[in-house]
Amino acid sequence: MPATVTLSTTTLQAPLNGSDSVITVASTSGLTPGTRLWVDTELMTVARLGVNNQVNVQRGVDGSSASAHVSGATVTIGRADQFY
């Protein structure tokens, strides 16, 4: 039987356009630099944690494309190897 992992989630607290490099999430619990974030069909990497649940990210990593996302979108949190 294959192993399964349940990943944590949070939500976007503000909409994003395709060029935003700072996102605001409901909670930064479990986030550290290097953590991956999956929103819709885009993969991001946490670069730095800011204040007030703001997170600097690298957008569109590992072949995904930076795109717009709505406020309230689910953000799945994990390590790079957990998204393949």
Descriptive keywords:
84 residues; mainly beta; 0% helix
Q: In DSSP terms, counting alpha (H) and pi (I) runs of 4 or more, how many helices?
A: 0
What is the residue-averaged pLDDT?
94
Amino-to-carboxy terminus distance: 18 Å
Global geometry: globular
Which stretches are low in confidence, meaning pLDDT under 50 for 5 or more residues running?
none
Beta-strand residue fraction: 25-35%
Largest sheet: 6 strands, antiparallel
Radius of gyration: 12 Å
Helix content: under 10%
- Structural class assignment: mainly beta
Counting DSSP E segments of at least 2 residues, the number of strands comes to 6
Which sequence of strands runs across the widest sheet?
A: 1-6-3-4-5-2
The quaternary structure here is single chain
Order of helices and strands: EEEEEE
Structure, explained:
The chain is mainly β and 84 residues long. It contains no helices and six strands. It has strands at 8-11, 22-24, 36-39, 42-49, 54-58, 74-78. It has a six-stranded antiparallel β-sheet, with no helix packed on it. The protein is globular, with a radius of gyration of 12 Å. The two termini are 18 Å apart. The mean pLDDT is 94.
